[in-house]
Amino acid sequence: GHSSWIYGDTFFVFGGCDGKYRLNDVHGLDLRTKEWKSFDVSGDIPTPRSWHCHGIEDGQYYVFGGAGPVKRLSCAYSLDMKAMRWQKVMQLTGELYERNDHTSIITGGRMLIFGGVSPVGFLSNVLLIPLVAAQLELQSGQSEQPEVNGNHADPAPNASDKAANTMAPLRDGSPHLIHDCPARSGSAVLSS
């Protein structure tokens, strides 16, 4: 349930759980020396979390949602990779925003988030979180399906499926959604 990414010559790991507790620490493996270290971070440090989504753009690592120690989360944070300083980007309220097991990609200065599990069940909506001062866009409601190349996407997974998905950029930078659910394998390009 942690996130990992490479920045410079370091492989970073944030959050997750140790089998008993959710975590919010940052560790890194120096890819040259092969030595691990813990990073001292400052600022508005995120709540411990696992099963969150993340992305990196312009030296900023972004994290949204996840499973916290008590409930699902609906907040976004950024970590300045040079200063190692956290900043809260936004806090959303409402069960449609609280989610874990969702996926994301950063494109065009926005974090595009798809699906996940919320207190009301499986989600199939798309959130567009601006990474600069602006307003959040809810691209489609929970009962509606996100647009995929002008057509509706497959229905949200049911309880017998898993909720995890993966998003990756195509060569032209457009987001590409890969369904990891066994009953709904395949992929689609999300229009943004």
Describe, in short, the structure shown.
The chain is mainly beta and 192 residues long.
Please write out the topology:
Blueprint: E1 3-7, E2 10-14, E3 26-30, E4 35-38, E5 42-43, E6 53-57, E7 60-67, E8 72-80, E9 85-91, E10 103-107, E11 110-118, E12 121-130, E13 137-138, E14 147-148, E15 151-152, E16 165-169, E17 175-179, E18 186-189
Parallel strand pairs: 5-9
Antiparallel strand pairs: 1-2, 2-3, 3-4, 6-7, 7-8, 8-9, 10-11, 11-12, 12-13, 14-15, 16-17, 17-18
Structural class: mainly beta
Strand runs, count: 18
Annotated CATH topology: Neuraminidase
* SSE arrangement, N to C: EEEEEEEEEEEEEEEEEE
Instruction: Give the termini separation.
Output: 27 Å
- What's the architecture, going by CATH? 6 Propeller
| Shape field | globular
Task: Report the C-alpha radius of gyration, rounded.
Answer: 16 Å
Q: Please, what is the CATH homologous superfamily?
A: Kelch-type beta propeller
- The CATH class turns out to be Mainly Beta
Number of helices: 0
Low-confidence segments: 140-162, 179-192
Structure characterization notes:
- By secondary structure, the chain is mainly β.
- The chain has one domain: Neuraminidase.
- Helix content is 0%, strand content 49%.
- The chain has no helices and 18 strands.
- A 5-stranded mixed beta sheet has the order 5-9-8-7-6, with no helix packed on it. It has a 4-stranded antiparallel beta sheet with strand order 1-2-3-4, with no helix packed on it.
- The chain is globular.
- The two termini are 27 Å apart.
- Pfam families: Kelch_KLHDC2_KLHL20_DRC7.
- Keywords: Kelch repeat, Repeat.
- InterPro entries: Kelch-typ_b-propeller.
